[in-house]
Amino acid sequence: MLDFWTCCRKNLSSSLFGAAVVLFCNWYYQLSPCNSPPRKGKIHVLLLSSWRSGSSFLGQVFSQHPSVFYLMEPGWHVWTKIEKPGARVLRMAVRDLMRSLYQCDFSVMDSYMPENYNMSTLFMFHHSRALCSPPACSLTRRSDMSNETLCQKKCDSQGLEMVEKACHTYSHVVLKETRFFELESLYPLFQDPNLDLRIVHLVRDPRAVIRSREESAKSFDMDNAIVLEQRNVPAASIQYEVMQEICRSHVRINERAILKPPPFLEGRYKMIRYEDVARNPLKEINDIYDFVGLEMTSQMEEWIYKVTHGKGKGSKKEAFQITSRNANEVSQAWRTVLQHSKVKRIQELCKGAMSLLGYRTVDSEKEQKRLDIDLLVPREPYEFSWVSAKSQRTGSS
Ligand SMILES: *[C@@H]1O[C@H](CO)[C@@H](O)[C@H](O)[C@H]1NC(C)=O
Ligand SMILES: *[C@@H]1O[C@H](CO)[C@@H](O)[C@H](O)[C@H]1NC(C)=O
């Protein structure tokens, strides 16, 4: 399909092949996805992250923006629909699901939904401001911040027609996924002439991730089994083996995108450390917006300030919610709470990733607990040139 589409476009633009080809292409348009020509200027963003890495927060930074149609974890539907699968098998299905959703084709969801599904059947639909705003729902003006609680109560509609309609009205479609462990399976999306894909890769100190995962350990059972390819792993080792997979995937993805990226990846990948966002939210988020071609608004600025300068570490109940917290404090919480023996074990398992991403290891419990010792390596050595992304942006936004 894709080859033919490419062929059609090439022939049409060179117009050397005359009427027959044009007619054939026109006919083919009627039958194929070709009948939705590439939407000029539409930008597709994948917020690629891992569990408990601050991606709900960064997701909201996109979702609340008035130009963004956002969905949280559409791949969840794939992971939960198929029995006892492994991540390797599922990734292509998730990729193809994303490809359709980026083009606002929600028919693909049909395979993964129960009978008589509604908008509210979509995983965490109320986290998407676009689904709480017209045309999907009349609750929240598009320029306002949405309220998840109210949206969940008041916004729903039969099927996904309104979702699809809403999707078409935005310049940016942003999907958040935690379910990819490499980039190669996504290459066809970069090469698809219908898509203009940017990846924002969010990482977090694995010691903080472990601590955060322990707070809601039970909720990871299904995902853990899939990440570990349904292998039989002693219960006490599961969290470490999963963490090791996650760390390996950070290295795999980052190295692939930075050292010798294929040409279609250049300028399309940006790595973000959660801790940098926590320390300097406005600067980091401005950079991210720049990278994907979104304007900062004063309302977004205010909101970002408010949610990153709140009341402290956050309770267990808040583990999956975005509330006003002190982001910087949250990012250090593991240092006082996590047993040093666990810290040591994670440091062993994630040595490569920590060194690549700029997280210093601690050698003793004392060092761990001395919060004045900074464990974040300044990012300068990891700063790459995003020049090409910026110049593309002026062309396409
Ligand atoms: C969707 O909404 C309809 C009507 O409001 C309801 O009868 C149906 O049970 C809902 N379906 C699901 C899967 O929630
Ligand atoms: C959302 O709305 C609920 C119900 O009206 C309210 O209690 C809550 O404070 C609101 N949340 C925010 C973040 O404004």
Automatic annotation (TrEMBL):
<keyword id="KW-0735">Signal-anchor</keyword>
<dbReference type="InterPro" id="IPR016469">
    <property type="entry name" value="Carbohydrate_sulfotransferase"/>
</dbReference>
<dbReference type="GO" id="GO:0001517">
    <property type="term" value="F:N-acetylglucosamine 6-O-sulfotransferase activity"/>
</dbReference>
<feature type="transmembrane region" description="Helical">
    <location>
        <begin position="12"/>
        <end position="29"/>
    </location>
</feature>
<keyword id="KW-0808">Transferase</keyword>
<keyword id="KW-0333">Golgi apparatus</keyword>
<dbReference type="GO" id="GO:0006790">
    <property type="term" value="P:sulfur compound metabolic process"/>
</dbReference>
<feature type="domain" description="Sulfotransferase">
    <location>
        <begin position="44"/>
        <end position="357"/>
    </location>
</feature>
<dbReference type="GO" id="GO:0000139">
    <property type="term" value="C:Golgi membrane"/>
</dbReference>
<dbReference type="InterPro" id="IPR000863">
    <property type="entry name" value="Sulfotransferase_dom"/>
</dbReference>
<dbReference type="GO" id="GO:0006044">
    <property type="term" value="P:N-acetylglucosamine metabolic process"/>
</dbReference>
<dbReference type="GO" id="GO:0005975">
    <property type="term" value="P:carbohydrate metabolic process"/>
</dbReference>
<dbReference type="Pfam" id="PF00685">
    <property type="entry name" value="Sulfotransfer_1"/>
</dbReference>
<protein>
    <recommendedName>
        <fullName>Sulfotransferase</fullName>
        <ecNumber>2.8.2.-</ecNumber>
    </recommendedName>
</protein>
<keyword id="KW-0119">Carbohydrate metabolism</keyword>
<keyword id="KW-0325">Glycoprotein</keyword>
<dbReference type="InterPro" id="IPR027417">
    <property type="entry name" value="P-loop_NTPase"/>
</dbReference>
<comment type="similarity">
    <text>Belongs to the sulfotransferase 1 family. Gal/GlcNAc/GalNAc subfamily.</text>
</comment>
<dbReference type="InterPro" id="IPR051135">
    <property type="entry name" value="Gal/GlcNAc/GalNAc_ST"/>
</dbReference>
<keyword id="KW-1133">Transmembrane helix</keyword>
<keyword id="KW-0812">Transmembrane</keyword>
<keyword id="KW-0472">Membrane</keyword>
